[in-house]
Amino acid sequence: MMRVLDIGPIDKLRAGTHPTKAMTPSDKPVRQVKNMANPELTNPSIVFVAHPQGKVNL
Description:
The protein has one domain. The longest helix has 6 residues, at 10-15. The chain is globular. It contains 2 helices and no strands. The termini are far apart. The protein has helices at residues 10-15, 39-42. It is an all-alpha fold.
């Protein structure tokens, strides 16, 4: 079973260096997915492993 949520230091989660089973080696965490407010304005304490169709290309 794959994990849906992990808890850890936000800086390590954002960098993708926190040990987790929720990501494969090729996955990269992102701070924003489609239809979400600009993370530079809201500074959310969450990161996502986005589905390819949910990624926001900045």
